[in-house]
Amino acid sequence: MYKILVSDAISDTGLTALYEHPNFAVDKKPGLPPEELKGIIGEYDALIVRSQTQVTEDILENADNLRVIARAGVGVDNIDIQAATKKGIIVINAPGANTISAAELTMAMMLSLARNIPAAHASTSEGKWERNKFKGVEMYEKTLGVIGMGKIGTEVANRALSFGMNILGYDPYLTEDRAHQMGISKASLDEIAQEADFITVHTPLIKETKGLINDEYLAKTKPGVRIINCARGGIIDENALVRALNSGQVAGAAIDVFETEPASNTELLEHPHVVVTPHLGASTVEAQEKVAHEVSEEIIDIFETQSIRHAVNMPQISGETQKKLQPYIDLAEQMGILAIQLLKQAPERVEISYAGEIAMESTDLLTRNILKGILTHHLGDTVNLINAHHLLKDQGVASNVSKNPKSKGFASYIEVTLHRGDNKANIGATILNGYGARIVKMNDYRVDVRPESNLLYIKHHDIPGMIGRVGSTLGDYDINIGTMQVGRADIGGEAIMVLTLDKKAEGDVLVGLKALKGLEDAQYLELPNEKVAVPN
Ligand SMILES: NC(=O)c1ccc[n+]([C@@H]2O[C@H](COP(=O)([O-])OP(=O)(O)OC[C@H]3O[C@@H](n4cnc5c(N)ncnc54)[C@H](O)[C@@H]3O)[C@@H](O)[C@H]2O)c1
Ligand SMILES: O=C(O)[C@H](O)COP(=O)(O)O
């Protein structure tokens, strides 16, 4: 039974899949103080949060069983991703599930600003009738600058177009073509400052966007500009905004998110030209059901089928790429497992190369599988795809990944080489169309071996009778040979044999083999059964 802790206010309807699943037990404890959360987090396999729970390194210190942190929403700035990654905890979110709600709130904020609705409401409900005081402006034919043209920025732009606004979009990923298709103009931050009557921000809060709208930027804006932030507190410097509001440079601001939450900057909160809401962008019935439903389904998938769709600390790959990589995923881990056994010691340097068609794909997932295979040998089950890169660095192991789209005799080819001092071990492998995975290189010798559970790697001199002596020694121990491959550098020189066996060859068997004339070394290489694909 997997234990799930829900530590923020999350929709029960959205959590139905988890409530109804026999393998999951859900504890709802919204609003837990940090020290209480730290005290109980060790009991749980997954944690579901919104933006309120601060998932700090300190709390994660006790999260010994935690495998997943699920953010029922988009922004993950309340989660220490680095600390989670170090502990091998997958962080997932629900991108897109609250996009429409956040875009609709942005439009509501823009309209509220343009028509002074909150202040007019307060005055009217007090019994006043101040028609002149609340004269607003039209949005029609005004220019809206959208900073961050991702999911929400795009929805906002589409809605603003229907209001007859001219849209200037700024986003490092926005192309001229895409802007043209949408009927908006691609602009720089400075162009937005100079031309926009309304500016709305829709970026994440990251190093580059912290204080993006500051004194310097506000000084460049069109006098009387109106500014909206329904993205993240901190993208706009609150004190700079107050200064610009006081000077009249900014005519009004509508703010849903704050540098610290709950919001405490009274100069901003009480400013007569400011509309504020308490981080309500995703607070609709629909968005809350969707985010909770999405993370519930994904948590079930992660625990039941190991499939991850929206990990924040894992490479995101498209369905099409996933399909292309799928056959290589198990093979990559097998290569790591075999390479580390061949090296017989911890590596100082790992080199991974991808050639041919596979080199044209995003291969980070394969690299993570290779590293997991290598590191598990010495570090055990603490290694997973999330922390593999991190643990490698932590162990002081240098790594290099190279890609060459030119084929090396196979449509796709992967090679892993481990180095320690003068010692090196390498494994080259491919997927043969219609024949499945093949190890085609071992320690620089060409071979053709199907990765199976029990492999025997023998280094010997290329002398007559070797194959027979190895075969009969294995027979003496009742070990059946599945396949046998021989490779040599030169006639009469060094050679290798790679055998697939029906059972393990350890202890006495290896001693017996090593005593054979001409045999230099015999190594049993094991691949865990569950990592061995069904032979085809
Ligand atoms: N108020 C709320 O309740 C609420 C609800 C949902 C989302 N959000 C927040 O809204 C923001 C946007 O969410 P989204 O789902 O659209 O995310 P998204 O990832 O789809 O879009 C973010 C965009 O910002 C762009 N960007 C990054 N750095 C930039 C920079 N320096 N300048 C300009 N653009 C930059 C990215 O390229 C991306 O296109 C996030 O901060 C999210 O946390 C708030
Ligand atoms: O990033 C988000 O998804 C929004 O800020 C919503 O946050 P919330 O889930 O705390 O409402």
From TrEMBL:
Question: Which reaction(s) does the protein catalyse, per the Swiss-Prot or TrEMBL entry?
Answer: (R)-2-hydroxyglutarate + NAD(+) = 2-oxoglutarate + NADH + H(+); (2R)-3-phosphoglycerate + NAD(+) = 3-phosphooxypyruvate + NADH + H(+)
Q: Which GO terms describe its molecular function?
A: NAD binding; phosphoglycerate dehydrogenase activity
- The ACT domain is annotated at 455-530
Q: Which SUPFAM superfamilies match?
A: ACT-like, Formate/glycerate dehydrogenase catalytic domain-like, NAD(P)-binding Rossmann-fold domains, Serine metabolism enzymes domain
User: Per the UniProt record, which EC number(s) apply here?
Assistant: 1.1.1.95
- Would you say which domain of life the source belongs to? Bacteria
Q: In which pathway does it act?
A: Amino-acid biosynthesis; L-serine biosynthesis; L-serine from 3-phospho-D-glycerate: step 1/3
Q: What Pfam families does UniProt report for this protein, alphabetically?
A: 2-Hacid_dh, 2-Hacid_dh_C, ACT, PGDH_inter
Q: Which UniProt keywords apply?
A: Amino-acid biosynthesis, NAD, Oxidoreductase, Serine biosynthesis
GO biological process, alphabetically ordered: L-serine biosynthetic process
- Give the CDD domains listed for this entry: ACT_3PGDH-xct, PGDH_4
Task: Give the EC class as a word.
Answer: oxidoreductase
Q: Which family does it belong to?
A: Belongs to the D-isomer specific 2-hydroxyacid dehydrogenase family.
PANTHER family given for it? Answer: FORMATE DEHYDROGENASE 1 (PTHR42938), HYDROXYPYRUVATE REDUCTASE (PTHR42938:SF47)
What the entry lists under NCBIfam families is as follows: PGDH
General function of this protein: Catalyzes the reversible oxidation of 3-phospho-D-glycerate to 3-phosphonooxypyruvate, the first step of the phosphorylated L-serine biosynthesis pathway. Also catalyzes the reversible oxidation of 2-hydroxyglutarate to 2-oxoglutarate.
Q: What is this protein called?
A: D-3-phosphoglycerate dehydrogenase
Origin species, per record, is Lederbergia galactosidilytica
